[in-house]
C-alpha cells in the first residue's frame, strides 16, 4: 500500500514476448497508451516485460517502478493524478515511462504482460465513518476496475499476471496466535476490508496468474512507519505504544519490492503470499532497536488514551498486533535481504 500509520502493527508477468526499447514513446505523447509491437529477442538473457502499475506514486510503488525501469522493463504508471506522477517520475530521469490517467488505463493494460495493483487510501488518519468507507472503497474500486479491464482484454493482448496487494490486517489481531497463509480471516474492520479486497482480485480471468501479497509494516527511509517514528526518537520521545507486547510484523522496503518482482517473473508465485520478514518482533523490541540505532532512548511508552485522542478508532491498528510468518515465500525459496529488524534499521538509517 502506499503508506502505513506510525507504528502500525496491522496494515493494511508475463509472457515470453517483450517490448523493445526502440519503440518507447516519449512522455509528452503518452496521454494515450498505444499497443506496441512485441518481438522476441534471442540475444537478451533476461526477457523484458511491459508492466502496468497502480499505486505507483506510493511508498512501495515508487521503489518498484525504479527497479523495473533500472532493469529496462517498460513501465506504465496508471494514476488519477498525472501531474503528481510526472513530478515523481520526471522524463529526464525516467525516459520511456508512460503515465496514464483513468481514461487511458484500458489501452495500457491491454498492451502489458503484467499488472501490479498497489492502489489504496492510506490508513494513517482518524477513522470517521466516511474515512472508513473511503479506505475500503479506494481499494475495491481500483481493484475492480483493473480486473474488469484485464478480463475485457482480447486473449492475444491480455496480461498474463496480476500481482495485487492486500494486507496482514486480513488475520485480525492476537498477542498469542501465529498466522500464516493458511490462517482464517479475523473479524474486525481491517480484516473485512482485506477480505473484500482479495475477493475482488479473485474475479480475474482464470487464465491470468494471480498473486495476492499480504503486506506487513514496510520499513524504509523515505516513508511508511519509520518516517513518523523517527521524529519522535529525535526528540527523545520515542517509545512503545500501549503495552509494547503487541507483535510487529514488518518487512524492509527492498524485500517487499523484490517479492513483488519475483511474483511477476516466477510462475510458481500464485495465490496468497505473506509479505513479511521471517522474524516479527514485539513492538517494544522494535522501538528499542530503533533507539539503539539512532542513539536515542526508547523507554517512555505512549499511553493508550493519548493515541485514542488522536486517532480515535484508528488507534486499534497501533494498539493491536499480530505475528505473521512468510511461510509460502520461504517454501518458494525467496531470499530475504533483511530477515532481522536490527540489520534492516541499520541499513535504513546508515
Automatic annotation (TrEMBL):
Show where the DUF1731 domain sits: 302-348
Q: Which Pfam families match?
A: DUF1731, Epimerase
> Which InterPro entries does the record cross-reference, listed alphabetically?
DUF1731, Epimerase_deHydtase, NAD(P)-bd_dom_sf, SDR39U1
Occurrences of domain NAD-dependent epimerase/dehydratase (ranges): 52-268
**Protein name as annotated:** NAD-dependent epimerase/dehydratase domain-containing protein
Q: Which organism is it from?
A: Populus trichocarpa (Western balsam poplar)
